[in-house]
Specification:
D-Amino Acid Oxidase, Chain A, domain 2; 12 helices; binds flavin-adenine dinucleotide
Length: 404
């Protein structure tokens, strides 16, 4: 069996490695000519994402590229502690890691290449057809490729999603603009590896102290209408520095000082989410990762869920007798989990963009609710998730009898 993978971000190379472990050949087709997308910003790889990489023996390079991230301290505009969110597996066995997005891309890509997986760059998928006994992929350079199945790992603005369902919804703007940066030479009083996040008067700010003393920070700036494509990036780092220092001037915490002294300011752009995509699969085509269900960056889970998807899909294809059955099993298994996390992140975004009355209510209620929500069953389910590679998906999960 040969799989055509579209997209060489995070889900693509991980899917190729997981399929290889399941005995299925895969070739990755990436639109960009080379290099990692999204250079500059950073992310948190959850303990669940690391655990899923460990299932295919591919966790070490990603772990080595980051530093441990155990908790997030939430703080009000005035500096009042609102509660702590623990961001690691409850048994403490695996800690989440913070790493540059580009380094995570590099880690999974290089590990896939090391295993002999073909990654073809400059291959932008423009069309695909299910031919009955296979699938034909057509690329912008005029080339074609044939396989038994096609896996769309092509991210938020997925082409495969619309080939599966031309009526598929577009990503929804979350009402926030994301920016990030790195600062040296400004002391902060937070524990290395623990985030402090402040619900500021006019915007949301988070920072974390890296082991080498650099402070990594991000800002979420509310804006009601969606900025036009390129608008946020077009504003320029110096103008952003000016705007952000003003926005955070009255808030508790080191935001204004860190931004003023920042060596780098990167506008990550408007933040989007993708929820409720009705069709994840049609015939021999399926979508995984952000192409199927992108949580807004607030969740800290997009990359981890993409990795989990890739491993679960490979496992279903290993165990079930038909491709359609395996896709159905994968969807039945994944949809409830990922949609819960996407919805949670959307609710958190509302708190970040609260108006004056909402802010008062939020700061009153959060110290009461946060400890229960942050350390309760939902967080355990998110960060403690484990994929049992040896177990087979059952018929009840949607695919008919397991192959013996
Ligand atoms: C600012 C920001 C902060 C974030 N923070 C976090 C965080 O803290 N934790 C977390 O887990 N996640 C975070 N995320 C989300 C995370 O980056 C994504 O969820 C993750 O990258 C999804 O992986 P993916 O492989 O599905 O898609 P992507 O990583 O987007 O990869 C898709 C790939 O497909 C390629 N492609 C697109 N179209 C085509 C085509 N037609 N043909 C061929 N190739 C194509 C693209 O070039 C790209 O390489 C953040 C995202 C942003 C923007």
């Amino acid at each position: 069996m040969k799989a055509l993978i579209i997209g060489g971000g995070i889900a693509g190379p991980v899917a190729a490695m997981a399929l290889r472990q399941a005995g299925i050949d895969a070739v990755v087709h990436e639109a960009h000519a080379g290099g990692a997308d999204g250079v500059g910003v950073f992310l948190t790889l959850g303990s669940n994402g690391i655990d899923a990489l460990r299932v295919i023996g591919a966790d070490a390079p990603a772990v080595a590229a980051g530093f441990p991230t155990k908790a997030i301290d939430m703080v009000s505009t005035t500096g009042k502690a609102l509660g702590q969110v623990r961001t690691s597996r409850p048994d403490g066995d695996i800690a989440s890691r913070t790493l540059k997005r580009a380094d995570l891309y590099g880690a999974v890509r290089d590990e896939a290449l090391r295993r002999g997986i073909r990654i073809e760059h400059g291959k932008r998928l423009v069309d695909a057809q299910d031919t009955g006994d296979g699938v034909r992929a057509v690329f912008a350079d005029g080339s074609e490729e044939y396989g038994d199945l096609l896996i769309g790992c092509d991210g938020l603005h997925s082409t495969v999603r619309t080939l599966i369902d031309p009526e598929a919804p577009a990503p929804a703007y979350s009402g926030l603009i994301g920016l990030g940066g790195y600062t040296r030479g400004v002391p902060v009083d937070t524990e290395p590896g623990s985030y402090q996040m402040v619900f500021g008067r006019r915007a949301f700010f988070g920072h974390v102290l890296a082991p080498d003393g650099e402070v990594w920070w991000f800002a979420n700036v509310p804006r009601r209408d969606e900025p036009a494509r390129g608008e946020v990036e077009g504003i320029g780092p110096e103008e952003w520095r000016h705007r952000l220092t003003e926005l955070f001037a009255e808030d508790a915490g080191p935001a204004a000082e860190l931004i003023r002294a920042s060596q780098e300011i990167t506008p990550a752009g408007p933040m989007h989410a993708m929820l409720g995509v009705p069709a994840w699969r049609r015939g021999r085509m399926v979508v995984i990762g952000d192409a199927a269900h992108a949580p807004s960056p607030t969740s800290g889970q997009g990359a981890s869920l993409s990795i989990e998807d890739a491993v679960e899909l490979a496992k279903a294809l290993r165990d079930l007798p038909t491709i359609e059955g395996a896709f159905a099993a994968y969807e039945a298994l994944r949809r409830p989990r990922v949609e819960r996390i996407v919805k949670q992140a959307a609710r958190a975004n509302n708190n970040k963009a609260a108006g004056p009355a909402g802010r008062i209510l939020r700061d009153l209620l959060m110290p009461l609710l946060l400890p229960r929500l942050a350390n309760g069953e939902q967080m355990r389910q998110t960060y403690g998730h484990h994929i049992d590679w040896a177990a087979s998906p059952t018929a009840a999960e949607g695919g008919g009898p397991a192959r013996t």
